Amino acid sequence: MGRLLTVVTVGILCVFALTGCASKKKGLTAEEILRSGDTQLGRQRGDRARGFYQQLLEEYPENRYKAEVQFKIAESLYSEKSYLEARFEYEKFLELYPQHPLAAQAQFQIAMCHAQEVSPFDRDQKVTLSALRAFRLFRRNYPQETLLQEAEAQILSLRQRLAEHEFDVARFYYRKEAYQAAIRRLLNLIQVYPDMADTDVAFYMLADSYRREENYVKAARVFRNLVDRFPTSAYVSRSAAWLRNLPDTGISRDADGAVP
Fold it and tell me: What whole-number distance in Å separates Cα of residue 134 and Cα of residue 114?
């Protein structure tokens, strides 16, 4: 009988011990859970970090760290290059906390998620356009942020990629002698991206496309524009030669018939 009581007593003590351990583990404060998540995030263990952050949100749904935790969930996904999932979490953060001090950074990171997945210039540029819109939204909504300079650099880079894509398509049509299609693309390129690196090349291709379509007035006007705007271009001599040899279009020349 005494032995039976001893066994029962030990069993009860074990149960209390286990219950106490479980209670201690479950009874972590919000600060302790957050610290554990931050430690894992610092060690680049995003999955483990998110486990702690989710635990914090579940056990303390009204805790004062919930906005910060939502942002860190997005950050952990971004660090793992899970850009689609990260973007979703940043967008969720902005929806829940649009006035939070981290809102500007969340919008910037949304744009960066798009920018990380842009395609080469010879592929479809839908993601590039999405990234450009997101950076412009950041610039419009947060004009005083320290990240503005970096956003401007990203906008410039994305515009250059879009210009390269448009130029690549225009060149494809030009080489295929589909001059009407080339003209449409080149006009759009020159109007939308006037500061692109190869603007003089685009002008020459446009003028030559007009010439081949026997639209000599427009051809002469574009050749003339190229000569005036890009005097150091490698295409000046060719443009000047065409201006001398095109049928009379009324485009101004020197007295001797040469282009200045």
Answer: 8
Q: How many other CB atoms are found less than 10 A from the CB of residue 99? A: 5
Contact by Cβ (8 Å): 116, 83: yes
Residue 150 carries which side chain, given as an amino acid letter?
E
73: left (phi over 0), alpha (psi -120 to 50) or beta: alpha
- What is the percent of the chain with per-residue pLDDT over 70, rounded to a whole number? 85
pLDDT tens string 18-61: 333 333 345 788 888 999 989 988 888 888 999 999 998 889 88
Assigned architecture for domain 30-100: Alpha Horseshoe (1.25)
Handedness of CA 48, 50, 52, 58 (dihedral sign): negative
DSSP assignment letter at 45: -
Secondary structure of 99-142 in the HEC alphabet?
A: CCCCHHHHHHHHHHHHHCCCCCCCCCCHHHHHHHHHHHHHHHHC
Can you read off the two tokens belonging to residue 225?
A: 């524009």
Q: What does the alpha-carbon distance between residue 249 and residue 222 come to, in Å, rounded to a whole number?
A: 12
The rounded Cα 170 to chain-centroid distance in angstroms is 24
DSSP string, 224-257: HHHHHH-TT-TTHHHHHHHHHHSPP------TTS
pTM for the whole structure:
0.77
